[in-house]
Write a structure and sequence with these properties.
The chain has 199 residues and is of the alpha+beta class. The protein is built from six helices and four strands. Strands 2-3-1-4 form a four-stranded antiparallel sheet.
Length: 199
């Protein structure tokens, strides 16, 4: 197993996630998710190691990385879209520090109130060579591949990560802790805001 450390120069970590809400837009049951989304995007923007994220066509903000599509897990749900995101990070530790701490951790804590329990992986990670940007179809393909074949250097999760060169990877937990602490200092206003919101 490879020791913890920085990925090779030029390799960036891509993350795609997909879920399904318990109700459609405007449903009071998902109001807590919708009201927290801007703060989550801003917290990511402020987080150490954040490279960028895809926006959504027709929505103010970053441009969309291609046409947004959805994995086959949406079939039969009654929805034609689902909450999903696509982003790039410097390394696994940076994404982990953001995802499981601060503003985003608050959203994860309440996710069961807004989302149906998936029978697919909630997210997929993979490495992308700079300056390439992944597009939505890349994320869909990788998530479906992870579901069908399990973790591998092509598609993996935090539980079984790999390096950009394909070796099993040991996450640097101390680096995650330090990054989370650093991020916390720049998120105090956002965290106070989300903690005041309805679930």
């Amino acid at each position: 197993m490879a020791a913890a450390g920085s990925p090779p120069t030029g390799a960036r970590l891509a993350m795609y996630n997909f879920g399904l809400h318990v109700g459609s837009d405007g449903d009071p049951r998902v109001e807590g998710f919708v009201s927290r989304e801007p703060a989550n995007f801003e917290a990511a923007k402020r987080a150490a190691g954040f490279v960028g994220r895809s926006g959504y066509r027709g929505v103010p903000g970053p441009r969309s990385w291609g046409r947004q599509v959805f994995p086959r897990f949406i079939d039969g749900s009654g929805f034609d879209s689902g909450p999903s995101s696509l982003s790039l990070w410097a390394d696994i530790e940076s994404l982990m520090a953001f995802a499981y701490n601060g503003v985003h951790a608050d959203a994860l804590k309440h996710a069961r109130n807004w989302n149906i329990k998936p029978n697919w992986p909630p997210l997929v990670l993979w490495w992308v060579d700079a300056p390439r940007l992944p597009d939505w179809s890349d994320g869909v393909e990788r998530l479906e591949y992870l579901h069908d074949h399990g973790p591998s250097p092509k598609t993996f999760t935090f539980k079984e990560p790999f390096t950009a060169t394909g070796e099993a990877y040991a996450i640097d937990r101390e680096k995650v802790r330090q990054l989370a602490e650093s991020n916390r200092e720049g998120q105090q206003d956002l965290l106070a805001h989300v903690l005041s919101l309805k679930v």
